[in-house]
């Protein structure tokens, strides 16, 4: 059984890509008074850039590639869950994890799995959030950290951050501004969440 540091929740981060939110969570969890620490990073593809960042930060980082499992999502998730249990994980943070989860994994981690989404939910669940905000003529955009439930991007929000949409924004420039907000919001919300977890 892994050693527990009293008062620090053991967090796993699931990623599919660059892992910039993951990096922000790892850094926040390394602060002396942090209420959590990132003890494991799992990617569903070996191409996820975040794996190298996690490794360089001294966090165990592994790939559980979904491809060999084909359509058997449950088996892929069971492999992930086994690693979460092996590392004594208490809270799961999805951070750009691009796989839909089955009700089984969501249920296994009910109330203990968080996600960050790059919109002011309930606006724009799903993909292409920044293009949709610009197309709608919104003056504000942002990001939401929420509890994961079975419906995609539907769970209760734990926190949001807002940024302005500028007249000359493209989806890329807006995404960049929102990302800066994401990197502040996610560690903040996860800290508050972990402090109140029983
Ligand atoms: C972020 O915009 C996050 O909100 C969304 O996917 C993106 C992941 O980016 N769910 P990164 O891998 O954390 O850089």
List the helices and strands and how they pair.
Layout: E1 9-15, H1 20-29, E2 36-43, H2 50-56, E3 61-63, H3 73-86, E4 91-94, H4 103-108, E5 113-117, H5 129-135, E6 140-147, E7 157-164, H6 171-195
Parallel strand pairs: 1-2, 1-4, 2-3, 4-5
Antiparallel strand pairs: 5-6, 6-7
Helix pairs in contact: 1-6, 5-6
This protein binds 5-O-phosphono-beta-D-ribofuranosylamine.
5-O-phosphono-beta-D-ribofuranosylamine (GRF) binds next to helix 1 and strand 5.
Question: Quick one: biggest sheet?
Answer: 7 strands, mixed
Binned, the helix content reads 25-40%
Question: Termini separation (Å)?
Answer: 20 Å
* Computed CA radius of gyration, to the nearest angstrom: 16 Å
- C-alpha geometry: globular
SSE arrangement, N to C: EHEHEHEHEHEEH
State which percent range the strand residues make up: 15-25%
List segments where confidence is low: pLDDT < 50 over at least 5 consecutive residues.
none
Number of helices: 6
Number of DSSP E strands: 7
Helix vs. strand class: alpha/beta
pLDDT averaged residue by residue = 96
Q: How are strands sequenced across the largest beta sheet? A: 3-2-1-4-5-6-7
| Small-molecule components bound | 5-O-phosphono-beta-D-ribofuranosylamine
Structural account:
This protein is of the alpha/beta class and 198 residues long. The chain is 35% helix and 22% strand. It contains 6 helices and 7 strands. A 7-stranded mixed beta sheet has the order 3-2-1-4-5-6-7, with helices on one face. Helix 1 runs parallel beside helix 6. The two termini are 20 Å apart. Bound molecules: 5-O-phosphono-beta-D-ribofuranosylamine. Residues 15, 17-22, 95-96, 116-118, 143, 182 line the site of 5-O-phosphono-beta-D-ribofuranosylamine (GRF). 5-O-phosphono-beta-D-ribofuranosylamine is lined by residues 15, 17-22, 95-96, 116-118, 143, 182.
């Amino acid at each position: 059984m892994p050693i527990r540091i009293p008062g620090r929740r053991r967090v796993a981060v699931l990623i599919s890509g660059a892992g910039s939110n993951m990096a922000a969570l790892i850094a926040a969890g390394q602060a002396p008074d942090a209420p959590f620490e990132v003890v494991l990073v799992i990617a569903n593809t070996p191409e996820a850039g975040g794996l190298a960042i996690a490794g360089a930060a001294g966090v165990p980082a592994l790939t559980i590639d979904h491809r060999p499992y084909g359509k058997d999502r449950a088996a892929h998730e069971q492999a992930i869950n086994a690693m979460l249990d092996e590392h004594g994980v208490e809270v799961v943070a999805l951070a750009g994890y691009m796989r839909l989860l089955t009700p089984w994994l969501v249920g296994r981690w009910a109330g203990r799995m968080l996600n960050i989404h790059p919109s002011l939910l309930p606006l724009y669940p799903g993909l292409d959030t920044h293009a949709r905000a610009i197309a709608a003529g919104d003056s504000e955009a942002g990001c939401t950290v929420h509890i994961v439930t079975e419906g995609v991007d539907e769970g209760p929000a734990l926190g949001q951050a807002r940024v302005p949409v500028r007249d000359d924004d493209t989806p890329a420039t807006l995404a960049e501004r929102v990302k800066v907000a994401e990197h502040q919001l996610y560690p903040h919300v996860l800290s508050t969440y972990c402090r109140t977890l029983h």
